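Structure tokens please, single chain.
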Amino acid sequence: MPFTLPAGPDVEVETEVKHSRFLAVLRRVDGPQAAQEFLDEQRRRYHDARHHCWAYIAGDEPAQRAERSGDDGEPGGTAGVPMLQVLRARDLVGVAAVVTRYFGGVKLGAGGLVRAYSGAVAAAVDAASLVGRERRHLLAVDVGHDIAGRVEADLRGRGVPVVGTAYGAVVTLTLAAGDPAELATVVAEVTSGAGELVPVGVRWVDV
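Here you go.
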């Protein structure tokens, strides 16, 4: 199962190697453009730093994932790729990492840089609270306004992800299911048999 960061603030961890400071920041991103905007933001935030190395993996479907990295002036292959390898090893998706380095006056050598950059990202991942990502069936059920709040609360209480709520003549709840048959049983229970599920597609969701 792939994992990602929960929605919320960035994860920030600082490490030090031979007086060089490495500020590792992780952010959940939904695509390459968001990853680039994150990198630009970090460059502005730490504009006086020498290097802003980066890596990201975006996209849930394995065949469609975008994986990129950059060394930003460090010797080729000593920063971005090791950072990317940490993200891969931890099965992360939808995550961008930027490591900002403040040079401490002591050269680390190629091996030292690889260990420092990969270690900085690993420390940030260790500090993060990760959530799993699963491909689920999406099914919609219509319920009356008078019971919609209770039904939604009951479904969430049973661990059913409610990924959408639309209000019209009735309230349409969009649910994510690993097993549609099992979900149908749950919906029948919480709606006293009145709820009918309609397939509406598939989607990756946090679990």
